[in-house]
What we know:
Layout: E1 9-12, E2 16-19, H1 22-30, H2 33-40, E3 44-47, H3 51-64, H4 72-75, E4 78-84, H5 85-90, E5 100-106, E6 113-121, E7 124-129, H6 141-144, E8 155-160, E9 169-173, E10 176-180, H7 182-194, E11 196-201, E12 211-212, E13 215-216, H8 218-224, E14 230-235, H9 239-242, E15 245-247, E16 253-255, E17 257-261, H10 282-309, H11 322-333, H12 345-373, H13 385-389, E18 395-398, H14 403-410, H15 414-429, H16 438-447, E19 450-455, H17 456-465, E20 470-473, E21 483-490, H18 495-509, H19 511-520, H20 542-574
Parallel strand pairs: 3-4, 4-5, 8-11, 8-14, 18-19
Antiparallel strand pairs: 1-2, 5-6, 6-7, 9-10, 12-13, 14-21, 15-21, 16-21, 17-19, 17-20
Amino acid sequence: MVEALFPSHIAFNSSIQVEIHLVNATLLKQNGILNTFTQVISDNIIVTGNELFQREAIQQMIHLTEGNVFSRRALDTRWLLLLDSHVVQNANVTSLKLNNVLLLSHNKKNELLTLMTLLWSPKGRVLTDVTRNYVVGGMTSCDLYPNERLGLNGREIRVGINTWFSYIMASTYNGTTTYRGFCIDMLDILAESLNFSYRLVLPPDGEWGDLRNGHWTGLLGLMERKEVDLVGAPLAPNLERKLVADFSTVPFDYYHMGLAFVDPQAGQYLSLWTSFLKPFSWQVYACAVGSFLGSLIFFRFLVFVETRQGGNDDEISQPPSMGDTVQFLFGAMLNKATHTTGSHHASRVFAASWYILGLVLTSCYTCTLTSLLVDSPSPPPFTSLAEMVTQDEFRWGTLGGSSMILDFRTSNDPTKRMFYSKMMTFAEDDPDVLSIDPEVHLGNVLAGHYAFYIDQITLQRWTADLCEMSSLVIHDDTSASAKTYNVYTPKESALTRRIDIVLLRLEASGVLSHLRERWKTRTSRCLDNQSAPQAITIATLQGPCYVVVAEILLALGVLLLENRCYRRRQCLHRQ
């Protein structure tokens, strides 16, 4: 209360003794102002004294906010200054960055009191007379401190960001870079709700925040050096980062961790409307069509020769027509052949070989298509983080300068410690495993035998566009619940509470859910990005092809034999 702040001396900033002049206190009591302030103001600091002290006190107050103009003392504390009128006119009062400042200026004879407050304007601080707002018994804090109802008064806030898909994406046109994404929309809502403007600041090293040699890199480095007032990027909180910054108790998003990799046994994806063609590769279909046409020509050749030679002694039949031959070959390929096989042994032998080819093709196609329809993927190379760190086929990496490295380095989990130890060994030969560029990791993943440890949102984006890629969400993480992304603020910042209030309202009203759906939902063009049976290739069917060739040669041999027998019978008949 104000009355409690009127002893003979009061401490100010732990170094200056503020002398309260009894004449001023008496003047306040006589005018009834003291009792009114007792009801309105509860957390104020009163500054008064002689002229020299008043000037020195103002300079000290200016230094209070250097480096953090949004601290709780600068933004929330109400200040009451009892100053001489000529001090108000000559001292650098408008340089004060304190949000709530009320001045009671009086002339040397203590006969006239004037109430003034410091307001924010586009050109800086301006003194505004609020004496007209003073009504004994009816005065409120907003009457004396109007900045409280104006939010942050349109002041510019320096916001640290780093580009990350769906959250903050940069695009450059005609030399001008603009940003869009989940976090940008959220910052716009916060700026409108709290009445501030913002300027985006990117870390020069491009990192997120890792502790090295006692100092922080990336976005946390900006905050450590007091170059930003908040961080509005997808930055995960942890105990180490808590030492240098505060973060909102209300997260703006949730996520899990996972691994991106290419399964060596995974097949290639085909579009949904051509999924019935997936069991065979295009080479097999081309060979099937070629075999059908070649067999048609060869079979008609056999029929032509057999017709000239005549039927068997025990069987006289009409030779099959072209239509009958096409129907027979196509039916045999589908394992549904007719009885039109010709009346000679050569055509029957060839028909048997064609039956074998049709049986193999039909069986392979049916089994593979069935396995695809019932979704029977091949087993992945590993199913957990613990399995991955014990195998030697895959290397792995993660985003450099991120919380993932910090978590692995300080974790007590044996699996994570082994993950970190081997990853650092990989980094000695290949620094790209700790690259800060996700595209570098993507190239390593597509090259094969490399796993990238990253958030599930990135996994969903990659697997939606790259159908050959597989993903594994880590379920054996030491944290059972989802991880969070929070807004970061400097230590003891008054912005933290204000941002928490707005985020809580946005979460309850569904605005944050709408932003997540807008920026994070991505339609996959892949029917199934998990491992699938491989398509049948020519190499797989080379055995049946050899059988067909052998049957063709056998059919030709039988044809030659029948032709020789036919000529011999003709000779005997003439004799």
